[in-house]
Amino acid sequence: MTVFYQTKITDVGSEVPELIEGGVLILYAAGAPPELAEVSVLHDVQAGPTADEPPVGAVLRIGNVSAKLTAVGELAWKKVADMGHVVINFDGAETAGRPGELCASPVDAATLLGALASGAEIVIETAA
């Protein structure tokens, strides 16, 4: 099993629930400007990111919620490496609509929102 990225949630912005209802999750490394922090899940990187981006089919785990990556935008992994920032769209798309996004299989919004707690782990890894 390869771990591409491992991070811990430090804070959840006040506007995150509304975005989750729309199937979108924005991650930003701790220390993001206040206007970005409002719409983001702030996190503290524990491991990675690896030099190679995760492949389609890799597992995205947020607390007890798991999804599979269905697309990786051409700039997404560079943004993760440079700023700890990425937009995750839980729409199951096979092609990323924007170059800086990851697409993942759909998940239940309420369950995902419940998993977004300070200290929860976010991991992107190959399937076991």
What does this structure look like?
Helices cover 20% and strands 38% of the residues. By secondary structure, the protein is of the alpha+beta class. It has one domain: M1 Pyruvate Kinase, Domain 3, CATH 2.40.33. It has an 8-stranded mixed β-barrel. The longest helix has 8 residues, at 76-83. 38% of the residues are buried. The mean pLDDT is 95. The modification Phosphohistidine is found at residue 43.
Write a concise synopsis of the structure shown.
The modification Phosphohistidine is found at residue 43. Helix content is 20%, strand content 38%.
- The number of domains is 1
Helix content: 10-25%
Low-confidence stretches at least 5 residues in length (pLDDT < 50)? none
Distance between the termini: 6 Å
Total helical elements: 4
| Beta strand % | 35-45%
What is the overall pLDDT average? 95
- Which CATH class is shown? Mainly Beta
CATH architecture: Beta Barrel
The CATH fourth-level homologous superfamily:
Phosphotransferase system, glucitol/sorbitol-specific IIA component
Q: What is the rounded Rg?
A: 13 Å
Q: What are the secondary-structure elements, in order, as H or E? A: EHEHEEEHEEHE
The biggest sheet, with number of strands, parallel, antiparallel or mixed sense and barrel status, is:
8 strands, mixed, barrel
Inertia-based shape:
globular
Q: Which fold name is given in CATH as the topology?
A: M1 Pyruvate Kinase, Domain 3
Q: Give the strand order of the largest sheet, numbering strands 1, 2, ... along the chain.
A: 1-3-2-6-7-5-4-8
Report the structural category.
alpha+beta
Total number of β-strand segments? Answer: 8
